[in-house]
Amino acid sequence: MGRVRGKTWMGEHVADVFVKRARAEGMRSRAAYKLAEIAGRDRLFHPGMVVVDLGAAPGGWSQVAARSVGPGGRVVAVDLLEMPPVPGVTFIRGDFRDVFTLAELERTLAGAQPDLVLSDMAPNLTGIASTDQARALEVAEAARDFALKRLKPQGNLVVKLFQGAGYEGYFKSLQSRFRSVAARKPEASRSRSSEVYVLAKGLRR
Asked: What is the pLDDT of residues 118-131, one digit of tens each?
C-alpha cells in the first residue's frame, strides 16, 4: 500500500500546476502560492515589515515575504534544515525553541519586534492518525507561543494547522489574544489534505 500511495503522490506532484508554476517562476516550492494567495486576500504584507518565518526550508514562504516587504523590510528565516540563501533573507539554522537559536534570533533582530510570524511547519509523519495530529498540534502551539511572546502589538500570525483533535481549542486560544482569527484554505492546498492556514490579526497586548 505504501508504494502505491507513493507512486500516486509522485504522479500528482509531477503533474501539479503549482509545481510547474514554481519551477517556471523560480520559487522554492509550491507552498509559496499558498502564502501568496493568503497575502493577496488579506493584505498581509506592506513594505518595510519585519517578518520571522519559522520552519522556513526550502524557502518558498521566505521568497514571498522578502519580495513583499521590499529592501526596507527584514525577513529572518529559521529552520533545523539547511536552506540555500534567499535574496533579502537572513537565515538561522536551528530549532526556534532552543535558547541558543533564540539568542541568535534576538541578535539578528537587534531589538526589532516582528510585524508578522509565519509557520508552514509540519512534523515528520508516522502514518498513525492520532499520533500525527498530536505532533502537528504541538508544532502549531510552539509557533503560537513564539508569536505571542515576540510579535509587536497589533502584529499578525499565519500558521498551518490540521483539522482534527485539538483544532477548536487552538482556534479559541488565538481568538482570546488576537483581534480577528480566520481559517484559510488556499487553492494550492490539496483538497484532500486536512491542512488549513489560520490567520490571526491584531495581537492584543
From this structure: 999 988 878 888 88
